[in-house]
Batch of 3 targets.
Target 1
Amino acid sequence: MTEFLGDGLELFAGICVRDYDAALPWYEALLGMPPTFVAHPTEGVWEVAPHRWLVVEQRPERAGFAVQTLFVDDLDARVAAMASRGIEPDNEETYEGGTRKVIYLDPDGNEIGFGGNPG
């Protein structure tokens, strides 16, 4: 199995939305920047870490079913930065041991979570 995870692996995690133009400002506020590149007029791609990409694509028939979680070093700082851009969490979960997940729902109901270990 480890051969599969060797050099050259790129991960593209997809999120389908009904209307890309309507979703774009929300994702820019959530992630704090415009897409790293625009693959085509209805698909934006953000590099969230080296070789790890979040793809937002207009595909109305599949919109609202994504569940993505990004684990970050400083969850509180990330949540505060998003709040400063007008994005508030929809839910928060705390797991055994204190690991937390803060959940955001985009306008289509896609779940984008940010997780972090206790401080």
Note: The chain has one domain: 2-116.
Target 2
Amino acid sequence: MLATAMLMCASLTAVDGDTVRCDGQVMRLLGGGIPFVWGIDTPEIGSHAECLKERKLALIAKGRLRELLEERGLRIEIKGYDKTPSHRALVNINRRDGREVGAMLRAEGFTREWRPGHENAWCSE
């Protein structure tokens, strides 16, 4: 298990609803979760979406994440790295008041729970 590492970013931007870019490094939000056990999932953006509904939901989630990232003093905790070829950092982003950004997105209905082997069907509902 990787010890938590803290990170500061000169530039922090939303890539999609559950992915950010910190100074060029792509990172996946855990939403308070535990790497490879549970986390959050948002609809896919652009050509990765399976339907128009998913694409629209993805843009809305990305917009809300962008708003949440505007606060100064965000704390980024690296909890591990995924198994993709790019080895994205798996992170929790905490606001000054202690609330975790991904958990806020989930509470507001922009994300769903992610677990290994579970697929979220954004188009069938």
Note: The mean pLDDT is 91.
Target 3
Amino acid sequence: MTDLPQHPVRFADLPSRKRTQFTLTPDAAEREALAKALDLLALRKLRFEGALIPKGKRDWSLEATIGATAQQACVVTLDPVTTRIDEDVIRTYTAEIDIPDEDEIQITEDDSADPLPATLDLYDVALEALALSLPAYPRKEGAETGVDGRAMFTEPGKAAMTDEEARPFAGLGALRDSLEKKAEDDS
């Protein structure tokens, strides 16, 4: 497997009073490695551009945009489906963040806050942002599942079970009908 591209940034090495701009435009081999990591058919374009901005004495925010053209397999036909991504990416890195040890925690409104790492790999942020932006179930235009838009799955040579047959009391109804028919035949 090809190694993923890296672009580590140490917060301690950045100027603490001004923005630090960045632009990532991976080459073909790096895009191929990223595509493989996300189980994509192809990643034709990727541009991750933005700035790391100091906030207060020790906190930072990342404000960026990600643009990509990705190709995924259609969930119905497995044909290639091309998706264009253009998203804003905002992350906050806080030096003193409370991480409760409890089993259940309440999530605050700011879900972009993360603990401040010593080193941040910008490709990790780009990969996460791209993964979150991709459609979970890409579908080729006009692709239909099963019969009349219903998904029907079974072994080759066997009839697929319908939604009607899968209902909990469908079997009991069929048993009742056969018993009634047998009672009629006996009388």
Note: The beta strands are 8-10, 20-24, 42-55, 59-73, 80-94, 113-115, 119-121.
